Amino acid sequence: MTYQWNQNETVDLLKELVEVPSPSGYTMDVMSKISALLTQWNVEYKTTHKGAVIATIPGENQEQHRLLTAHVDTLGAMVKEIKPSGRLKLSLVGGFKFNAIEGENCLIHKADGSTVSGTILLHQTTVHVYKDAGTAERSADNMEVRLDEKAFSKDDVRNLGIEVGDFVSFQPRFEATSSGYIKSRHLDDKASTALVLQLVKHLSETKEQLPYTTHFYISNNEEIGYGGNASIPLETQEYIAVDMGAIGDGQESDEYTVSICAKDSSGPYHYGLTRHLIALAQTNSIDYKVDIYPYYGSDASAAISAGHDIKHALFGPGIEASHSYERTHIDSLKAAAALLHAYVLSPLVS
To answer: What is the pTM for the complete model shown?
Structure first.
């Protein structure tokens, strides 16, 4: 059966996902949304103690399983300190630098579920006052949140209901251009999540028969290192992380192909399974690149580190400026979607 990938529907779903705040540790709302979609599509799923969602579609072979994962948690921050000035000091959640969020609008998520808006700025931002505006280190001590409220003291901030430990999410600024580019924060890894969910919807609606029972694991702690490392069914033999390709100097990955990762910081991925993905891309005329990511880890490598006896591999759309204001192209999403579909119909690697 030909996979009729719905480009517009995928982009719309991606927009919906990135607009639901979900920094690691604060993913309840987006997981509820995903659960609702799976219920709507009549797909069986379970929720783990950590809050991840695992959807399962039975295959002809119900003794040997495969698993695909994408993560929906994102970078974010937490309130570290309420300053005497009424501004907030942040503690970052995930692996990134303050320069990636300088000038970004944000939301502080209060304990009662409501939010207060603000902007993340260098304390010495204005060049009309501070000589070191351009040279000051973008660090936790120098960066702060300017609240969109009349708050001039710690008491003023606490009277707004803001406390140390509240989560902070960043405005995604999603935009799909007429030239096919998609710009937004948190394309890592909500782009892959949208692709995986669209595949699940296709399989549910068309009743296309899978050769093996397949689990679709939407994890919610990947950015802090332990998203998809537990609750893996014992029958699982192959584990695919669907996550972004890293673009930069010396890299093969780009915004127009699917990136297949041969090695990252954790070491090489399973050779046979990686070669299988490459062969599938070649056989199905899918544009791809093979790459090595120097500073990177995935849920698949986390599962290996946790001691699971699985074959693991990693592929996904190429994402420019990862962990900042990111960008990809519809061509990369299309290629990743095609490889996803080809993989779930393929034989297991012996």
So the answer is: 0.97
